[in-house]
# Entry
Amino acid sequence: MPRLTEAEYDALEDEITRNPPDVDPAKSRRPVRMVVVDDFSAEWLRVKAEAGHTTPAKVIHTLVARELAR
# Structure
């Protein structure tokens, strides 16, 4: 995962807002989502994912599922 500066994040967000990706709902299996996190959170997710031999998305899913179960 490349490291972006705050200015680069802002520019990327502006670009995506002005030019949203073309998605054909009839052909997509699930919606496309993007989550932007700070460097500390990204590194923590990467380490947890590597330790569990999984992906950062799965780590987030597990955290959310645990929170909802409470």
The chain has three helices and no strands.
